[in-house]
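General statements about sequence and structure are easier to judge against a single worked case. Part of our work consisted of pairing the sequence of a single chain with a tokenised description of its backbone. The amino acid sequence and the backbone structure tokens for this protein are reproduced below.

***
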Amino acid sequence: MTQTPDYFLPSTACVVHKRLGLADHCAAFDVGLGCSGYPYGLWLAAMMLQGGGVRRALVLHGETPTRFSDKGDRSVSLLFGDAGSATALEASDAGCADWYYALHSDGSAYESMIIESGGFRDRFGTDPRKHCVAMNGALIFNFTIKRVPALIDETLQGAGVSVDDVDYFIFHQSNHYIIKHICSKKSLPVTKVPIILKEFGNTGGPSVPLTLTEGGLLRPADRPLRLLLLGYGVGLSWGSALVELDPSAVLDRMELDNIPKDGPA
């Protein structure tokens, strides 16, 4: 999943397929979702695993928003960081806990966060500012504080659990004030809401899995960790995934400096 692909074609998934040296019976395809992409990607992979015929899935979500922000536009230039994530899922013969998802879209506000030029609507636009992201900050703010609290309610009610049953609420790391506002509105304990904006900024959709590895989560040894993952933003789209992380699941990360233009080997 990415909204900052290497090329219009081929798909970034096929480029990664080559670099990983995967077999030709492996399906590889892109999903063009940004801030909400991680819950959507988990849902899509889980559906394939549950449908049979697929044993393993690798959900990759990478964004480089610093490369599409106008350094002279202070409304966006100071917000972003770059990150990528890889999540390996495997079907279990022993069965597993039910995961719950809630997914939404509202395309009527698609222009509220947009790169106007570079696509085939305006392939070679001459205004360099239109090749960078433009954001209606007030609209995005109002969208988030309206939709995300309702998304939390919908997810908890659909799964039949309460706030107390969830170990951590993992928000897309969009804005510190917004996250704190939602926590207050929904009475979420601050100890259950890790925030890593100070260290990494807004890395788009990968901020959700990045927070899983960097948020200082305390993991019980004798039971799965129950997490409510929340993504929201460009599209407009928003989604959640209520998942359980097995004690044996590995969470790890690395930081790279001075990445070459064509990416790591």
